[in-house]
């Protein structure tokens, strides 16, 4: 019988810490696009590797940017 090997997944590096960003701004669309999937959804924390507080800042900034028409609500590709 083969023994099951449990591996701990590698901890993702925080993209905001590496870019030295402490406050997420809704006007920084280049940064916010990194946290949005190709379908227009906000990526999950486990995918991006940010903290809980940073994820909340990102979500709020993305929603504000969408409201200001800086980012699309969804992808137009169908």
TrEMBL record:
Annotated GO CC locations: cytosolic small ribosomal subunit
InterPro entries assigned to the protein according to its UniProt record, in alphabetical order: Ribosomal_bS18, Ribosomal_bS18_CS, Ribosomal_bS18_sf
Pfam families tied to this protein: Ribosomal_S18
GO terms, molecular function: small ribosomal subunit rRNA binding; structural constituent of ribosome
GO biological-process terms attached to the record: translation
Keyword DNA damage belongs to the record: no
Keywords: Ribonucleoprotein, Ribosomal protein, RNA-binding, rRNA-binding
Subunit structure: Part of the 30S ribosomal subunit. Forms a tight heterodimer with protein bS6.
Function: Binds as a heterodimer with protein bS6 to the central domain of the 16S rRNA, where it helps stabilize the platform of the 30S subunit.
Similarity annotation: Belongs to the bacterial ribosomal protein bS18 family.
Name of the featured protein: Small ribosomal subunit protein bS18
């Amino acid at each position: 019988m083969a023994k099951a090997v449990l591996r701990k997944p590698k901890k993702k590096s925080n993209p905001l810490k590496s870019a030295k960003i402490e406050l997420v701004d809704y006007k920084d669309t280049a940064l916010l696009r990194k946290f949005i999937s190709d379908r227009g959804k906000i990526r999950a924390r486990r995918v991006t590797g940010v903290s809980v507080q940073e994820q909340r800042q990102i979500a709020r900034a993305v929603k504000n940017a969408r409201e200001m028409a800086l980012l699309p609500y969804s992808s137009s590709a169908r």
